[in-house]
Design goal:
Elements: H1 2-11, H2 13-22, H3 31-51, H4 55-78, H5 99-112, H6 114-121, H7 126-149
Helix pairs in contact: 1-2, 1-3, 2-3, 3-4, 4-5, 4-6, 6-7
Length: about 160
């Protein structure tokens, strides 16, 4: 998730910069550098998590970023600004802000701490747990992306179709 989001923000910097500015949480002069910093940070977190060597730092950094993102979204939901994009992946149709998106982001922060728990358990569990976490994370992200591009389900007999008796 972090690798795709970070690289997308690096590649489509202007779109992400606009999304970041639309949150209206920072001074105007800071958006450019913060946009670059977030994109680089997300990419770096992904590399730490995938490496297996930096999983502890990567997990903590990922959880921290996700909590910051959830706070930024929550502030805007409280302001009634739910028409904003979550900004997760520039160039992809993103969800609009809602409490459900905020809660999902907080839940992801908890999941990001899984590598930390595995490493704290130590012993022979750390490497298998890391491998399963990476594989599971990749599968969940691919499933999420597939769901986003599927057309909506059409229920027979709905969408304006009338039945005659």
């Amino acid at each position: 998730m972090f690798l795709v989001a970070g690289v997308a923000k690096l590649r489509d910097h202007d779109t992400f910069l606009g999304t970041l500015a639309s949150y209206r949480l920072l001074p105007d002069w800071s958006y450019e550098s913060v946009a670059w910093a977030l994109a680089v940070a997300e990419t770096g977190v992904a590399l730490l998590l995938f490496s297996g060597f930096g999983a502890l730092v990567g997990g903590l950094a990922a959880a921290t970023l996700l909590v910051v993102f959830a706070l930024a979204m929550g502030v805007n939901v409280l302001r009634g600004r739910t028409d904003l994009s979550c900004g997760c992946t520039p160039g992809v149709v993103s969800e609009k802000l809602s409490w459900a998106v905020v809660l999902r982001t907080v839940a992801c922060a908890g999941v990001a701490l899984v590598p930390c728990v595995g490493l704290a358990a130590g012993g022979g569990l750390a490497l298998p747990l890391w491998g399963q976490g990476v594989a599971g994370g990749v599968c969940l992200y691919l499933l999420w992306q597939a769901i986003q591009v599927l057309p909506p389900v059409q229920v027979p007999g709905s969408a304006g179709q009338e039945h005659s008796a």
